[in-house]
Amino acid sequence: MSLITDLFGKSPFGPLVQHSKKVHECVELVKPLMDALFREDYEEIHRLQDRIAKLEYEADCIKHDIREQLTKRYFLPVDKVDLERFLRRQDRIADCVQDVAVILLIRNTRIHPSLHPQFHQLVEQVFQVTGLLLNAAVEFQNLAEVSFAGAEARVVLGLLKGIGEEEWKADRLARSLSQALYRREGELDPLTIIFTEKIIIALGSIANEAENASDLLRNMLVQ
Q: What are the start-end ranges of the H helices in 73-115?
């Protein structure tokens, strides 16, 4: 029994989904974070940043457990290196959420009210991208427990393709928001423009990293 355990060990795919869910919890705090910014409730921003830091730490704990399992397991249906890369990409999603929170903490930037609707659109689109990634990770776990072929694999590949399309939409929204920001150059001071642009870039990076993570899932499926 010991030899079997050494060869096959505990499956990392369940914890991988736990890690995905914990990262997604970080992303879920982006909307209340931005709402607090629009209300200029900077105490709430501090509270939410602390919550994001705690979730990021919890995600790190899951990640370390997965890495420990990977070192003990000899047989996997995918390359361990690819799983490690996927974990790092998911980490970057949480890091980008933390980046948004830190930018909001550094300076009490007031977002021009005319930009609020576009910011809301961008945040919702970013959430759409990361939500699809979570769904793909769950389906990937189910697929890993049976096989990496057939109709189930096509479902996951369809989800992954959808992530690319939704990230493209997020990218377009971010560009449109930046254009709207710079159309107000005469009304806003340079520092406000700089920090608002930093927020836009950090939000777009969340969707970007989610797409990068989805590319790694796709590679594991088609290799």
A: 80-106
Indicate the pTM of the whole model. 0.89
Structure tokens, 154: 């096509």
Separation CA 132–CA 14 (nearest Å) = 17
**70-118 confidence digits (pLDDT tens):** 766 555 667 788 888 989 999 999 999 999 999 999 999 999 999 999 9
The three-class DSSP label of residue 186 is: coil
Residues 6+ apart with CB under 8 A from 64: none
Distance CA 116, CA 134 (A): 27
Cα–Cα distance list, 125 to 102, 128, 165, 169, 203 (Å): 21, 5, 11, 7, 10
What value does the CA radius of gyration of the chain take, rounded to a whole number of Å?
Answer: 19
Task: Tell me the C-alpha distance between 159 and 166, whole Å.
Answer: 10
- Give 194-216 pLDDT, tens digit per residue: 999 999 999 999 999 999 999 98
Listed in sequence order, the DSSP H helices in 145-189 are 150-182
Distances in whole angstroms, Cα of residue 20 to Cα of each of 117, 141, 176, 205: 28, 11, 29, 17
Nearest residue to 70 (alpha-carbon basis) of 141, 18, 16: 16
- Alpha-carbon distance of 198 to 13, in angstroms, equals 35
Domains of the chain: 2-222 (1.20.58.220)
